[in-house]
Specification:
The chain has three helices and no strands. The protein is mainly α.
């Protein structure tokens, strides 16, 4: 049986991928942005070269992630769909 995009989930945490109201569910090669962004940010380095550091920090400010950078649950976004919208600067 072929899998469909609706059947795909993160290989790291199991989060369903590409869920419209969940900005951290983006498909990064079979893993969600929630996991990949955190892993890349934790690698550290120069923020000019590792843009995930700034992205994760911004997502913490937006309320998408916990203070340590861990992604909030998909249930959080499903119950609060207005939170997952990218704030306008």
């Amino acid at each position: 049986m072929m899998s469909t995009p609706e059947d795909q989930s993160c290989g790291i945490c199991g989060r369903p991928l590409n869920v419209e109201v969940d900005p951290l569910s983006g498909d990064c090669g079979g893993d969600c942005w929630g996991c990949i962004g955190l892993i890349e940010a934790q690698m550290g380095g120069d923020p000019e070269e590792n843009i995930s550091i700034g992205s994760v920090a911004t997502e913490v400010d937006w309320g998408w992630r916990e203070s340590g950078g861990s992604p909030k649950s998909q249930r959080f976004f499903l119950e609060n769909p207005e939170i997952g919208k990218t704030p306008v600067s």
